[in-house]
Design goal:
Blueprint (H helix, E strand, L loop, with lengths): L3 E8 L3 H11 L3 E7 L7 E6 L8 E4 L11 E7 L3 H14 L3 E7 L3 E7 L5 E7 L2 E2 L6 E2 L6 H12 L6 E2 H14 L1
Parallel strand pairs: 1-4, 5-8
Antiparallel strand pairs: 1-5, 2-3, 3-4, 6-7, 6-10, 7-8, 9-11
Bound molecules: fe (ii) ion.
Length: 180
């Protein structure tokens, strides 16, 4: 198994000036944005400038004025398959030092979220066959087989906006980035 760097989610104080800097100066495109969880949750904004990732960076608008500047919600690594997500979860469970293990699916990913021994947030995920507009999130049951997991995820997200084969999303995303 190889963990490949994918993205970080970072807390911000003042969303719009941060987006202005990251889009106009650093060249990121906003790929999705919306409230996390039930209505009234904090806003998350996703950004990317590579064709291979829906987001390389996301900002979550929860930082208070006097919190320290270096606030990372989590770092994320991609693996090749749902079996590898399951294997990583087994490794973490056997080792016992990670905490807060939390399997989540965003419709476009099957993830295991956890905290390292010092409490830093980490995510290991694989792509699902689909894209769906973000943010989205619900638990998934790792004890079920891959076909059952896929069927349940499809069922849960098929009616959500932007649901499409992930290859179509990456193709459109790559085209958009080429033409900007
Ligand atoms: Fe993530």
């Amino acid at each position: 198994m190889q963990l490949r760097w994918s993205h970080a989610v970072v807390y911000v104080r003042d969303m719009e000036p941060m987006l202005d800097f990251y889009t106009k100066v650093l060249g990121f495109e906003i790929t999705d944005r919306g409230p996390v969880g039930p209505a009234g949750g904090p806003e998350i904004v996703f950004m990317s400038q590579v064709p291979s990732d829906h987001h390389q960076l996301a900002f979550l608008s929860v930082r208070k004025d006097n919190d320290p500047p270096n606030s990372v919600n989590h770092f994320a690594f991609r693996v090749d398959s749902i079996d590898e997500v399951r294997a990583m979860t087994g490794r973490l469970t056997d080792d016992g030092r990670a905490s807060n293990l939390n399997p989540m699916t965003h419709g476009n990913a099957w993830s295991i979220y956890f905290s390292d021994p010092e409490g830093n947030g980490l995510e290991v995920f694989c792509d699902t066959p689909w894209h769906v507009q973000q943010p989205q999130g619900r638990p998934w049951d790792m004890s079920k087989n891959n076909e059952e997991v896929a069927a349940e995820t499809r069922e849960a997200f098929a009616a959500e906006p932007g649901f499409e084969p992930i290859a179509d999303f990456y193709k459109a995303h790559a085209k958009h980035l080429r033409n900007r």
